[in-house]
Amino acid sequence: ELRRKSLEMELKLKSREDGNLPAATIGSSTFSGKDELLRELEATKGQISSLLEQHAELEMKSKSDIKVLVKEVKSLRRSQHELKQKLEKSLQEKSEVEQLLQREMKQSEQALVARRKLLHDCQTLHSRLRNCNVKFVDSNFADSSSTLDVLDLLVECDKQIGLLLTEINHFTPEADTLSNNNDMKAVDHELRLVLRDIFIDNARLRKRMNLFIQSALQVGSSTDENGSSVEE
């Protein structure tokens, strides 16, 4: 716009200089108008120059800002890529931790099931072993028929203890009930072996006790028979 006005003023000034007006009409007013146009022209040129300088400064500042923005965009893209990688790594670690927790929970459940089964087996064996006791109703055994009954009970008790010993010898952990943890597996195995040995020792001790009672009853019965023969 300023350029257009400047050109218009230059054209007007030139047209006045080249005009064919009579000399009488050209006076001081003409020179005054010319000077005014020149001043306006200079002012317009000054404004144009100032605007051009401002435009150049703005253009330089704009280029500088664009460079800064480009650097920031590149930095943001790098940061975004790094954050994306960190997020993927975090998600992968989270998934691995969840899988580890699930495995540990499963192992804990399996270990709990194995121990409950072990407790049940021990309670069952202990109950059966206690049932192998002979309850003596008659304490003096004077009657030979009572002695024979007790001897029969002792023989039956020995049979039950023998069967129980056979089962106890197979008192080992099943493969599917063992813990997946090697340490827990070793502990479970050792615990079952110790309990098995305890039950075996207890059962053998009961068999020896029964044998001792049998011998005592047989000796007592023989003594009674010999005494009766002497009296006759």
From TrEMBL:
InterPro entries documented for this protein: EREX-like (IPR044588)
GO biological process per UniProt: protein transport
Keywords (A to Z) from UniProt: Coiled coil
Keyword Coiled coil: yes
Domain of life: Eukaryota
Annotated coiled-coil segments of the chain: 34-111
Name recorded for this polypeptide: Uncharacterized protein
The keyword Coiled coil is assigned to this record: yes
